[in-house]
Amino acid sequence: xxxxxxxxxxxxxxxxxxxxxxxxxxxxxxxxxxxxxxxxxxxxxxxxxxxxxxxxxxxxxxxxxxxxxxxxxxxxxxxxx
Length: 81
Hints:
By secondary structure, the protein is mainly alpha-helical.
């Protein structure tokens, strides 16, 4: 098994996210000190770190403040399309 990137040759799943959800999650993960997030197992922090790394590969990384605010409003309202 590959010892490099965590999802190199290990089993994976594909998760489809609404773009606004991805923007909100990326913004939150990117601006949150994961050392302060309550966890019950170290794997939870690692999974959040891995999620952030995957979101960095998407086009949400360059979202403007206006796009983030709009995404937050849409997600808060549950306006998924």
